[in-house]
Design brief:
The chain is α+β, with helices and mostly antiparallel strands. The protein is 15% helix and 32% strand. It is built from 1 helix and 4 strands, in the order E-E-H-E-E. The strands form 2 sheets. A two-stranded antiparallel sheet has the order 1-2. The protein has a two-stranded antiparallel sheet with strand order 3-4. A hairpin with a 2-residue loop joins strand 1 and strand 2. The protein is globular.
Length: 66
């Protein structure tokens, strides 16, 4: 976790398991109140999920949405 003035501002992590075939990349993350509800809504609106919702230790709930 990178911080700006002591507050979390950005993070860096290894590529999630199962995505080894993707080249290195930068991803954009946003905080939402409910990851599972947001994923469900994204699918309803035509989006797709490339990382199923999961808990990341010391970070919180996470999913990859396109």
């Amino acid at each position: 976790m990178f911080k700006l003035d002591g507050l979390p501002a950005a993070g860096l992590m290894p590529r999630p398991e199962g995505l080894e075939h993707f080249p290195p990349y930068w991803g954009v993350y946003v905080t939402v109140a409910d990851v599972d509800a947001t994923v469900k809504k994204a699918i309803e609106l035509g989006g797709s999920i490339f990382v199923q919702p999961r808990d990341l230790p010391n970070v919180g709930r996470f999913a990859g949405v396109v």
